[in-house]
Amino acid sequence: MKIATYNVNGINGRLPVLLKWLEESKPDIVCLQELKAPNEKFPIEAIQKAGYHAIWKGQKSWNGVAILSKKHEIVEVQNHLPGDDDDIQSRYIEAIINKTVICCLYLPNGNPYPGEKFEYKLKWIKRLKRRANQLIKMDLPAILIGDFNIIPTEKDVYKPEKWKDDALFRTEVRKAFLDLQKRGWIDSLRIIHPEKEIFTFWDYMYHSFDRNAGMRLDHILLSPYLSGKLKDAGVDVSVRSWEKTSDHAPVWIKLKE
């Protein structure tokens, strides 16, 4: 089974790119972030024509998450990260697909640091960790997948010394990512490629992609239940070079059925 995540940076503006990638990559399950569209503007007809079922939670102009499935039914669990009923940002959707819990997330960026946006990011992470711990205790197949807006280590970013006071690379958020791993969550890309330089995002400015001045923000974390099923993982870097593409590239894993 092939499972992927892709921050599309505007699903309607990037729809041709998304559909082309779906046709070429043929993932079984896809998590999307940054739809930047309200619920009624989600292009469900085009997604269905491409062969996918979908659930989504949109938001006008900002945020938005979706889960697509090619073969299996999607049973929605929740479309809001528990812990703050006043949080109206569309950043989380959770479903069961083929007996696996899929937690699609778009974690807050948090910049500028310091400030309210960074504090919101830290609170959001605490809520995510609570849900992640619940899933660990239930001892079931589960995946935390999406744009975490966290650069885990120095080898995950071009010139790390420039990012020490950025909300993506602050000690607090890197520690939170490490805490998830200590609880048993498996960083699938790093298990398959422990030393390789891996980036999933390249800014549109400063010819960042041409210089490979990127960072790794998009992650697929597996619960311990799935530890023996990981076969492969990678990044479809070439998609970042396509015309009118997102500033992120799709990330994928393959699991044993």
Automatic annotation (TrEMBL):
InterPro entries: AP_endonuc_1, AP_endonuclease_F1_BS, AP_endonuclease_F1_CS, Endo/exonu/phosph_ase_sf, Endo/exonuclease/phosphatase, ExoIII-like. Keywords: Hydrolase, Magnesium, Metal-binding. Residues 4-248 form the Endonuclease/exonuclease/phosphatase domain. SUPFAM superfamilies: DNase I-like. Coiled coil: none annotated. It is an enzyme of class 3 (hydrolase). CDD domains: ExoIII-like_AP-endo. Pfam families: Exo_endo_phos. It comes from the Bacteria. Its EC number is 3.1.11.2. Belongs to the DNA repair enzymes AP/ExoA family. This is Exodeoxyribonuclease III. It comes from Chryseobacterium terrae. The lineage of its organism: Bacteria, Pseudomonadati, Bacteroidota, Flavobacteriia, Flavobacteriales. The gene is xth.
